[in-house]
Amino acid sequence: MASKKNLLNECVAEFSGAGLFVVLGAGSIAGLQLAGASYTYWDISIVWGIGIALAIYVTAGVTGAHLNPAVTLAFAVFGNFDKQKIIPYILAQIAGGFAAAAVVYFLYFDLFATKDMATAAVLTTFPKAEISLLRAFMNEFFMSTLLISLIFSLSDDGNGLPRGALTPLLVGFAVAAISAAFGPLTGPAISPARDFGPRLFVWLAGWEGDVMGGGRAVPYVFIPMIAPLLGGLAGAALYIKLIGEPLKRRQAAQQADLPVQEAKGAETEYF
After folding, report:
1. Which end of the chain is more exposed for a tag (fewer CB within 10 A), N or C?
2. Terminal CA-CA length for the chain
3. HEC string of 226-252?
4. What long-range pairs does 154-163 form, CB within 8 A, spacing at least 24?
5. What would the pLDDT profile of 200-253 be if each residue is shown by its tens digit?
6. Quick one: angle between helices 69-78 and 86-107, nearest 10?
7. Rounded-to-integer distance, Cα 39 and Cα 223, Å
8. pLDDT > 90 fraction of the chain, expressed in percent and rounded
9. Are the C-beta atoms of residues 16 and 96 closer than 8 Å to each other?
10. DSSP 8-state symbol, 109
11. H helix or E strand, kind and range, residue 211
């Protein structure tokens, strides 16, 4: 009974955290596109980053602040996260994104003059018309690879990076930088919860146009769902193989006063 209650509390935290950063990020986009706010793209990227940082501060003590299905899957595969919690966490994160889109739509309701693809892009993501599906997939894959490798780096006590209160800010800055650099190509999504939750709301709210498919031969909805998950796994694997494991071996060698080569058998444990 206690474990079910704990899981419910964790899901509520993931729902709240995902909802918090999406409502701030999507709200800033609505302010720009609907209310004529004088933001730059960098300003919006910073808002997304601040939203992520705040969401981590709010939820880290309960769940470790996954907030993103790609993070949850990567920690389950390469860390010690309970695999039985994968689906509940992901559903909670998607629900948070859905609720955030509903809040933004409600507050900006009078400014949503039409329900077309242009206003759908206020809440969810679509690639530039000039971008092929393959390029869009690779962009989302790369952004997720970069973000998850950075998150694993900041979560690894062995690499000497700052801890405590700085970690959420650093993750937020990472999100802002990645979004500013590559986000204009595809939105960005980076998180399936940030994309699919709002996309589902847009679809159910009766938007006109192909909000699920994006007018592409292959429905675009699958790109921001699959690419970040695979990119997250790649990012975690790359960090562990190229940085995490060598660090563990070096530390084991230093403690034993042995050459690094002789400590290759040292155990590696993450998170």
Report:
1. N
2. 26
3. HHHHHHHHHHHHHHHHHHHHHHHHHHH
4. 155/270, 155/271, 156/239, 156/243, 156/244, 156/247, 156/270, 156/271, 158/244, 158/247, 158/248, 158/251, 159/243, 159/244, 159/247
5. 999 999 999 999 999 998 999 999 999 999 999 999 999 999 998 888 888 778
6. 170
7. 28
8. 82
9. yes
10. G
11. none
Tokens 């039985």 sit on residue: 84
Closest CA to 60 of 25, 19, 14: 14
Given a contact cutoff of 8 angstroms between Cβ atoms, the answer to whether 188 and 143 are in contact is yes
Instruction: For the chain, list the domains and their CATH numbers.
Output: 2-263 (1.20.1080.10)
- Tell me how far apart the alpha carbons of residues 183 and 186 are, in angstroms, rounded to a whole number: 6
pLDDT tens-digit series, residues 54-84: 999 999 999 999 999 999 999 999 999 999 9
- Residue 214 has which token pair? 């994006």
CA pair distance 42, 188, nearest whole angstrom: 13
Cα 120 to Cα 3, 124, 192, 245: the distances in Å are: 39, 6, 16, 44
pTM of the model: 0.91
Among 93, 82, 113, 98, residue whose Cα is nearest residue 18? 93
- Count Cα atoms within 13 angstroms, Cβ side, for 199: 25
| CA angle (205, 114, 201) in 5-degree steps | 20
pLDDT for 259: 58
Residue with tokens 């990227």: 45
Backbone angles phi, psi at 29, to 5 degrees: -65, -40
